[in-house]
Amino acid sequence: MSNAPEIALLFSSFIVLLVVRVPLALCLATSTFLSMMVAGMPPVLVVERLYAALDYFPLLAIPFFILAGFLMNQGNIAERFFDLAQAMVGHIRGGLAQVNVLMSMMFASVSGTASADTAGVGSMVIPAMVKKGYSPGFSAAITAASSTMGAIIPPSVLMIVYGSLANLSITALFMAGIVPGLLVGLSQMAIAYRRAVRDGMHREQRPDRRRFLHAARRAILPMGVPIIIIGGILGAIFTPTEAGVVAVAYAVVLIVILRSISLKELPRITREAVLMVALPTFAIAAAVAFGWMIAFLKVPNIVGEMIEGYDIGRQGGLIFIVLIFLVMGCFIDGVPAMIIFLPIAQKVAAVTGIDPLHMAMVIVMTAALGLVTPPFGLCILIAGKIAGVPTPVIVRETMIFVAAFAALILAIIFIPGIVLFLPETFS
């Protein structure tokens, strides 16, 4: 293996830097730079790779969807989602926990990012749950777990990135994510119900028809955002990037009509959204350079040759891919992990005959699971900060949701129709 020294340096330097808590983007860029130097490449190639990674039109969808999510999280727009969720499921055992999950589902169809869902839903629902008698740990755990739907239910940023990298239809990915996203939400509602029964929590009174219609009328305009985004993309009216622009424009019009916030607040909100996008964008650029180096050193071919020696089949190949992304999800965010290891996953898929769309959803689901697995678990960290709860407490409370999520991933591996049914039906 002629590239063994470069491969060893690339991965070992990355792991060492990650262990000593160097920021992820710098870990990726530095390890790429070192391996390029050992391989005799010019240093300027690192800069060229970083620039080329961001000079890609579909990635513009990410800041627009995040900005739209920030705008929708403001003022009485979030309250309208809360009131509608309360009217729909608040009377079920574990009412506020059920509301938490349904609100996350609603916000997932707007922002496309799990972290934005955690912050938006958590800041409103966690205090309400604690006041109602739920433990802070469970309140934070179900918030973190339910926010993972932001990475699965369209318009998912993870799917946009994946589709761009793998040259896969983003529309097909969005359709493939609808059923798994709903199943995640239903499984979490079932867990919340079981927890409420165990703790002897009483049902809330079912809202009357007038209250329900009032909440539904107030939420009609905010719910127009996911309808426009998903309907426009699935109907081939505009691209995902254009959908992000339309979502931002609609959200701005909405806050003016509903007087959710003052227009003077727009620069502040935009600045916060830009800051949230900046660091992940640098990490994406560095991850693309790192992934390019992996491909250059023929790491996917090496893994493919190893896999060919064993008759593991499609399911075995998918489980192998899940293990890779599950381990990496404990340490790095889903988008960089996807960029880095997608070439390896594609080689495994080519060797074992895995359907590209099937593999895409398995990877997206596993990357979403990584948001609630320690020690990185970005959604756990955000929810813990809101609830003021130590991370180990949230991790313990989150394990039942992680187990249910992992079981759903296994079901998707062995029953591809869960994700392929809608894309094949409407293709």
TrEMBL record:
<keyword id="KW-1003">Cell membrane</keyword>
<comment type="subunit">
    <text>The complex comprises the extracytoplasmic solute receptor protein and the two transmembrane proteins.</text>
</comment>
<dbReference type="Pfam" id="PF06808">
    <property type="entry name" value="DctM"/>
</dbReference>
<keyword id="KW-1133">Transmembrane helix</keyword>
<comment type="function">
    <text>Part of the tripartite ATP-independent periplasmic (TRAP) transport system.</text>
</comment>
<feature type="transmembrane region" description="Helical">
    <location>
        <begin position="399"/>
        <end position="422"/>
    </location>
</feature>
<keyword id="KW-0472">Membrane</keyword>
<feature type="transmembrane region" description="Helical">
    <location>
        <begin position="168"/>
        <end position="193"/>
    </location>
</feature>
<feature type="transmembrane region" description="Helical">
    <location>
        <begin position="219"/>
        <end position="238"/>
    </location>
</feature>
<keyword id="KW-0813">Transport</keyword>
<comment type="similarity">
    <text>Belongs to the TRAP transporter large permease family.</text>
</comment>
<dbReference type="GO" id="GO:0022857">
    <property type="term" value="F:transmembrane transporter activity"/>
</dbReference>
<feature type="transmembrane region" description="Helical">
    <location>
        <begin position="273"/>
        <end position="297"/>
    </location>
</feature>
<feature type="transmembrane region" description="Helical">
    <location>
        <begin position="138"/>
        <end position="162"/>
    </location>
</feature>
<dbReference type="InterPro" id="IPR010656">
    <property type="entry name" value="DctM"/>
</dbReference>
<keyword id="KW-0997">Cell inner membrane</keyword>
<dbReference type="InterPro" id="IPR004681">
    <property type="entry name" value="TRAP_DctM"/>
</dbReference>
<dbReference type="GO" id="GO:0005886">
    <property type="term" value="C:plasma membrane"/>
</dbReference>
<feature type="transmembrane region" description="Helical">
    <location>
        <begin position="244"/>
        <end position="261"/>
    </location>
</feature>
<protein>
    <recommendedName>
        <fullName>TRAP transporter large permease protein</fullName>
    </recommendedName>
</protein>
<feature type="domain" description="TRAP C4-dicarboxylate transport system permease DctM subunit">
    <location>
        <begin position="12"/>
        <end position="418"/>
    </location>
</feature>
<keyword id="KW-0812">Transmembrane</keyword>
<feature type="transmembrane region" description="Helical">
    <location>
        <begin position="51"/>
        <end position="72"/>
    </location>
</feature>
<feature type="transmembrane region" description="Helical">
    <location>
        <begin position="357"/>
        <end position="387"/>
    </location>
</feature>
<feature type="transmembrane region" description="Helical">
    <location>
        <begin position="317"/>
        <end position="345"/>
    </location>
</feature>
